[in-house]
Amino acid sequence: MNSQVGSMSGKAGAGNVLDSWSFNNIEPKSFTVLDGSVLPSVDSMDMGIGSSEQGNAITTPKPRKKTITSVYLKYFETAPDGKTRRCKFCRQCYSIATATGNLGRHLSNRHPGYDKAAVFVGSAASELVTVAKKPQSQAKSPQLEFDHLNWLLIRWLVSVSLPPHAVGDKWLVNSLKLISPSSQLWSGEKFQMVIQEIYRSMREDLRLILDQISSKISIALVFWTSYEQIPYMSVTCQWIDENWLFQKVLLDVSRISCPCGGPEIHHALMKVLKLYNIENRVLHLTYDTTEHACHTLKDDMDIQKMNQYCYLPCAAHALNSIVSDGLRCTKSILSKVREFVLQANTSSKIMEEFVHFCHAYREGSWKNPLDASHRWSGNYQMLDIAHKAVKSMETIVQKYDEELGS
């Protein structure tokens, strides 16, 4: 993912954005007048002054002012704690202090046609009765159904990381025609435009979230090279919230321009930090891979006298390096055991006999399939088999010598 974006102004409500979108004009902001019940009310008392019959005083309650409620609030429900509001369509939560204009933008941007729906999630039973009397208002137009289909395709494109022009492939169009001959797909240009608008909206939502963080934040960097030999860097923001819960969010995936040195990495990183206005709130930088790239980044910042960042290598990456160095002497053994496990996983007969011999030789029980990955768990399983199931493994190798080879 390589999104070249510019700076933007304004804030939008925070939340996931892949539910709906509209390119209509933003609805005018609405306003809410505080309910009189929220403010302390003082009842007017008409007391008989100087009279002995004070017990007959008449109490006349002060009439309440008429409450003006935002039209958007009926599409949100208040949480039991009274601190947040939740969208009845997508369950996105907002602070109770969020302006109703932001709620309106959420509805218009992500739930087009929300004001035309007769029933929405969380509606009361009385509304359901009204709908039963007028079922014709529930009928969805074909255009809304087609838009919903296109939104499902957008979710699919994003989840499988396919380019927008993939929707123009004949196999996909023909498959949808089999399901619904009258289905209409957006053009590839419209898919591209919608995805870009979604990305911009998500970026604004993320800026709003980061603005509300009062603590310092940590930046984690991961470097890799694509199959096209293009270097990329992912920038992830991490912090501890007010409830002492760990939070993290992906800020951006940036392409590193040639020659991929310290100045290029520094430029890409500062571009992301300035985009979200957090360049002065970073506690430290943590890198997971490509130690050389981070050292060149540090050297470039030292030259520019930017020493406000603390560099910390990832603890898991350091531990993985230690374990990998310790397993170097057993590399040949691990390779042979891994080949045996891969063959056993592909043959139910070999696996059944291996489990049978392990039970007969009392060499433990093993779950099928065995983990033959190159991760820590896989390496540990290979060592465990080589240590505990030597007799069973040798018996299987001798019996299936032709299939297992060397």
UniProtKB/TrEMBL annotation:
Keywords of the record: Metal-binding, Transcription, Transcription regulation, Zinc, Zinc-finger
UniProt domain BED-type: residue ranges: 70-112
SUPFAM superfamilies according to UniProt: Ribonuclease H-like
GO molecular function: DNA binding; zinc ion binding
InterPro entries (UniProt xref): RNaseH-like_sf (IPR012337), Znf_BED (IPR003656), ZnF_BED_domain_contain (IPR052035)
Top-level taxon: Eukaryota
Name listed for the protein in its UniProt record: BED-type domain-containing protein
Source taxonomy: Eukaryota, Viridiplantae, Streptophyta, Embryophyta, Tracheophyta
